[in-house]
Amino acid sequence: MTTSTGADTTALSFDERISRLAEVAVRIGLGLQNGQELVMTAPLEAAPLARAITTEAYKAGASLVTTFYSDDAATLARFAHAPEDAFDTAAGWLYSGMADAFRNGAARLAIAGDDPSLLAGQDAQKVARANRSRSKAYVPALELIANFATNWTIVSAATRPWARTVFPDCAEDEALSRLWNAIFAASRVDGTDPVGEWKAHNDALHARTKILNEHRFAALRFQGPDTDLTVGLADDHEWCGGASVSRSGILCNANIPTEEVFTTPHKSRVDGHVASTKPLSYQGTLIDGIRVRFEDGRIVEATARTGGDVLARVLDTDEGARRLGEVALVPASSAISASGLLFYNTLYDENAASHIALGQAYSKCFRDGGEGFSEDDLTGRGANRSLIHIDWMIGSAEIDVDGLTAEGRAVPVMRAGEWVG
Questions:
Q1: What would the DSSP string read from start to end of 283-340?
Q2: Model confidence, pTM
Q3: Sign of the CA dihedral 324, 325, 330, 334?
């Protein structure tokens, strides 16, 4: 490996960079253990990366790697030809099986790379019904993932439909190459020691969470163009960022890449208005120009310049869909933001800007990782419950963030999108 020889990384071939990304996914993202099973999902076009990850997983001692592939053409066939009542059906047996695997100690890895606008021309009612059915069926697995019951991670693979969206003015092969280059750079695989760079980056994120946890803020206030939002923080909340220890005792990075520090808001203590600063790509639909108003933690008004009908249906998923499950801070100068690209992919765009998430809270973002807390305990501390967890971006170089103490004193946390101190 280049990491041990010190070879010039500019000479790395595409296959070598894929192998490095796979190594980062397995060693840094998952922290995969000897004898552990791995359950992986991936778009069909991401098969080369999935195979490389499978190879690295077995090198790390995986007992079994099982991969489930999705296919855009098959998805579109459903919307074109399936009977009307088919959109209230989901593969509950599949998600129950995944949940069983996670309970038995299997790791989880998702490769993202979906076409951001795959379902943009489809019947919005059918899209909403299909999404709701899948969300309900996914609950057993989602709760285990949200509670960090096992080690898990998400990485990305460049696909042609995604590349065409990010680089619409480029020839398809050039667009694909440029997107892969952006993924490799953001995932820190081009340096002389990717694993070492990730450890240093995790240390920096941990230092930032330490500062925020020492403040014990009661709330955050975001102010800027079209935004004046106060996000109350859950009682006994804990800031997290970078590598975390799952409840199974394994150190993992849930997102590759990651630039955020995040915690749990109080579901009833969010007030004010906020505008999105980047489009949200949600299961094939692009939702842009989001503007919402909160009262007592709940969204009471919501509009969007595009995709508003899908947003409205998302908010009607359940009671918790109109409340927050996460608030995250990301400097506007993050590596992903500095790329100047809009990725139309939440894994990347959320790491270019501070953001909030509708829906399910992470129970790990409490003191002692929420260990021993029942669902009633978490709810009592302000954690939200929902079938969904959807991040959307509200930060930029024009947004200031203050931490509010229990006494109401404002402490500068970010100015013009950058950390203070």
A1: TTEEEBS-EEEEETTEEEEEE-SBSHHHHHHHHTS-GGGGSEEEEEE--TTSHHHHTT
A2: 0.86
A3: negative
Q: Which residue has the tokens 């990304």?
A: 21
Torsion, Cα 59 61 63 69, to 10 degrees, reads -40
Residues 6+ apart with CB under 8 A from 189: 17, 20, 21, 24
CB within 8 A of 146, min separation 6: which ones?
Answer: 360, 361, 362, 363, 389
Distances (CA, A) of 222 to 55, 110, 154, 270, 330: 44, 32, 28, 11, 13
CB 231, CB 271: distance < 8 Å: no
CA distance 291 to 306: 11
Rounded to whole angstroms, the Cα distance separating 131 from 357 reads 17
What is the 8-class DSSP label of residue 62? -
CA 220 – CA 395 distance, rounded (Å) = 13
Cis peptide bond N-terminal to 257, omega within 30: yes
Strand pairing of 285-287 and 280-282?
antiparallel
What are the tens digits of pLDDT across the range 190-233? 999 999 999 999 999 999 999 999 999 999 999 999 999 999 99
Q: In angstroms, what is the C-alpha Rg of the chain?
A: 21
